[in-house]
Prior knowledge:
By secondary structure, the protein is an all-beta fold. The chain has no helices and nine strands. Strands 1, 2, 3, 4, 5, 6, 7, 8 and 9 form a nine-stranded antiparallel β-sheet that branches.
Amino acid sequence: MLIKRFNEAEPYEAPNHQACTSLRLAGFSETGPENYWVGCSHFLPGGGAGPDASPLEKVYVVLSGQLTVTAAGKTEIAGPMDTVFIPGGEEREIRNEGNDVVTMIVVMPYPPGAAPGGKS
């Protein structure tokens, strides 16, 4: 078992994200998950990401606020405890169109060759 305390989470820069602060909760270290990593993102009002696509699938779990998600030509609003799955290669855009901060968990597999200890 490994517990990483929230106050030990390190910030990281997520590409093509605006008005967002991201923290790495698990992964990209010698101990912890070998197949995926977990992040926590805070989007200020007006913040968001994309539009863009990643070859890797991703899962978002909205903890607070409302996240507007556009993917596959469809726009939906995800709220607290809603889960959003984005398949690899699918273009998506996410926006915080409200006045509250959106906090969400992000779970993604490692990019090829980026897993800890050289595993992929």
